[in-house]
């Protein structure tokens, strides 16, 4: 998109920009390092099509992988930002888009560990800009998995959902990738194994042997493109609907 | 405790220090502003008694209250730190105790929003000190509610658990306070109301009317000191046992 | 105090909050690590009673102990913050209380090394809030010992006052603790010795042998609860009077 | 690329990672906002193919556009990072890749204003890691245009080269885009005009009327895919050769 | 200058302050470490005389010397600031002078590596003060060598100008010093040698042997006070004229 | 001094560098803005001559002037750094000189408000360099007035010393300037007045009318070059002697 087309989009005063946020993080032998960025970008793009919104360049490096949710930051292939840098990214992008006249900025997160640092960056941006309750402009922050419904979970995990914390390289991410980015999934390289059993605390430095050798916290066995499609369609529908209601936008009748 | 007694405790090379982390945050009309600090201090003290550990001064100001988990930072009575300051607190305390020769430092968190910033502070401290996997020293981080068992939840919430996110000023915190700090609970000031229904995203600036007027996200109706005792005893037992196993310590047979 | 009682206190537009600031610092074998926090909290509480003000949670970790005023930061038991973290604490608390509508915030300092970092935090907060000379709101910063009168010094130190810089674990702090927190003072553990003779410069890294083995910079011999009472009553009276005059408040006729 | 394939690449001890660095910046009506990121990614990818190196996710947001080199940061469509955030990005990525065992990291810059902040981030990373002259590992930093030869300039600008500072949206960038990303160039939207005449100083706040309405500092008239191919082939050849010589690598005989 | 004379200068509302910026950096055996500060101070003072402006204390420590423009930061005698500190210096000084009512602040730079960090400091200052395009106040940033004309270059370098990047301790700086600070130049200590041939990339850690043993990147042979006078007079004239035109000031008819 | 002479000084392994630290701060109508920098530079230079040490470029901007010690930062002519920038300056300079092989670095302070921020910068530098008690290298920090003896005070202030806090533009600074920089003192512009009576707390924002109109906190009446000489000679002698003893250096028999 060129700057002049962008300015036309801004001219209405109703422009909405979705920023995908991911990571560069090991996701086992069958998924690419950029899985989180790819998935958040797909969700952001689909919602943007339905809402007539724009999609910005993704934030493609995320906060340090934690052992309890991503296997740990010590694993080669995982390349991360510290908290201050990610806060700075979110603060700068929120400020910059709002200063240009974007009405609503939505961060679409795909990497668990990012959330609080994005929140802090957004909060600092609004404080600096003096945007307070009741203002026209707003920033939203969400993680796409918070829009997966219980019905979908039941279908995707017929034997019971193992919990979000160990969904790293497991059925959800693998199925979504099989549906959305099949050429980037190497199911033949997939190594099966039991789900990680992680303690109720974080320990640092990590105890490396607690992370399965695959780097995945739960098995991808049972993943399928069909499950991925189901997940994707349901999340896109709910996420778009929620944003449309929240921000008084007419969702376009565009198929996802 | 004086410095010379402290040095004796350090001399074994096995000293363990628990640091309670709370907040100064509105908790409705019936609970004090310092609820999170009081509860984390009680849990830390009980575990310390069982494990022969020390308890440090609490971190009594926490990260900004978020609307989805604490009602929001706009409410008077809520006095918070930004992310950088809380990261700095955790980094400094972890570094300082480890430098003095403490073997294990445990942050016992009682305010949901703190977690990731504490994690970052700890990680930075270890990086600066060059403490890597396999080292003698370690830092643990936990939130006390992650040790509540399903059985306990079933007993405390006979009608079903409404979810951790809206447990702010609700049955869990109120019951624990009735058991541990009854003089600081004003059940006669309690105002009942339906649980908050919050969206699946964070929106900033907040929409103030989404937080119930009480500032509590779920009702405290049904709270009791007995439930508080049940919660407290079970969590202290599990938390102490987990720490003892993890850190090769003999749990003392001290009643909590 | 709960949030609703707090809001009533704010409603007058005249609310005043005192924040005690201390440290976790070795104070010899006879005084607890938290001496500075305990003393500043007592002074803040007494002044608050007289002035109808509120007392906030103390800042219980302070800036690094310096050899010339506190024995040095290398001594076990001394657990400190760096300058940036303490500036951040003061900045956040000043901003947060002023934003809630508190009219006057008063930092009551009990640890020598804190002062300039608290000052900087306050100054940054006011700059961010745009509060300039002539504004309704203000922040005050003081160290309690600056209110000890010459008459009191003459009585407490009949052989001559050795100077503020080496008053660390000496007669003043010990006497105050004997009066205010007798159960936390172990006079039987007190070790006597000559006052430290420290150079007119700071040297880093410190030369450890310059700090007496007790960690105290002057002797506590001659301390008494009676001297502590004298110090306490005189300081509370003067400090309250100064604040009352400065901030146009009627000092209550409450005995300290 | 998945984490296991990546680890195989690391195993030789000779892995080399190229990180493209761009911006999201207005480039007139005929070029996309992501021009700098696209071009640096193409150059990095081509060099990587020749050198058997890896290409990382690009840094797709850059330092604030300056009026003298990019038209200015006030123009809608330009979304930028402050210096601290970009320093943080470079520092984190350099540290992370070196810690994983990458031997040489090369930042391939495509946005003039980024350079010094990338340099600082790299320098801080090496200081933290203790990597000093003579070490095995290194980090290189370059801007692709520094590899354009005088011969190429003579061919691309038969009427004389106007200078690098005003090459923003001009013949060089447009020709490269016509060669590498023709579908993203809208030559029909191109607006012609004289080159900007900018003072020998930076002035802030900017004087907006000094930037041509197009946002381009020099005219794109005379751009062609053929010139782009010439530029691209020459730069890739020289850049690859320089890196190969510097880092003792055998350049593969892969056509760019 | 005393504060009351300064306030008179401010009273017109038209005060202009020039801040010289240099470095403490090795400049070979014949030039002093403070060469950059001395030269920028001379240029600032001369322009100030012509424009009726004030000259502030110089910033006498600069950003790290880079091998490609100053020989490298590893050389003894080079004492530098990191990026954050220099940004902070520029931000504080710009804010402070503008807050006092200075209308125009001009940073006159004499050390290549400083430029972008000064720019960032200025930009942050204006953002904090809310000074936007169209405002009365402004800050300018320039490097004195950008005002050397082509005619002057032809005269100073009859055999062709070797390029700004290797002008470190070479003919330009040496000639200027011979004209302006002859007592501080030790031409008898000058060591001759070929110009440095540096790569088109920065490499860190540096390869020390790439910097000539003299620390100068090009030869000072051919330097003379006469060339220095020519350079100085031409730059002062052009720089003063540009500033006068830009800021609507009548240049005084004072000989430089 | 050129870089090669400097390296010879380093070669002994015993090099000592003194860094004067001042401010740009109003000092009434009779003293220049740079008074603190001038005085600290004179003291550093005199001690350096006696000790065979080097003097570095001064830090000529200091921390914000506080009303109780310098009249306040709101007064035009006072141009200051925030705490973070001054900490950064001290940290960078200490690190840089120690890294070059300087054995002892001494900061000679001439502006009251600087002290704690310099201390913090030095402490951080040593932590980063891993310099611990017992190391060969050290950094010293002092304020010159701490070396004024009681005898000298009695002679300079025959009517009694009013206290260090209000010695700003008073007899001590004025007498020193009359002795050391007579051409920069305008005794005819001196305005007399009573000493400032300042409260025992700091209040922010300041109450401007508490600072006398002169900007001086005590009267300069009674200042003389003779008193300045007395002060200067006594301080230089004591300061040099203390440093010589502390750092095992033979003080040269050079008259100051």
Automatic annotation (TrEMBL), chains A, B, C, D, E, F:
Concerning InterPro entries, the annotation shows: Creatininase, Creatininase-like_sf, Creatininase/forma_Hydrolase
* GO BP term, example: creatinine catabolic process
Does the keyword section mention Hydrolase?
yes
* Domain of life the protein comes from: Bacteria
Q: By its UniProt entry, which Pfam families does this protein fall under? A: Creatininase
* One MF term in the entry's GO annotations: metal ion binding
Name the enzyme's class.
Answer: hydrolase
Which controlled-vocabulary keywords does the entry list? Hydrolase, Metal-binding, Zinc
- The EC number(s) given in the record are 3.5.2.10
What cofactor does this protein call for?
Answer: Zn(2+)
Family matches, as PANTHER family: 2-AMINO-5-FORMYLAMINO-6-RIBOSYLAMINOPYRIMIDIN-4(3H)-ONE 5'-MONOPHOSPHATE DEFORMYLASE (PTHR35005:SF1), 3-DEHYDRO-SCYLLO-INOSOSE HYDROLASE (PTHR35005)
* Membership in a protein family: Belongs to the creatininase superfamily.
The record's section on NCBIfam families has:
creatininase
UniProt protein name:
Creatininase
Native species: Arthrobacter wenxiniae
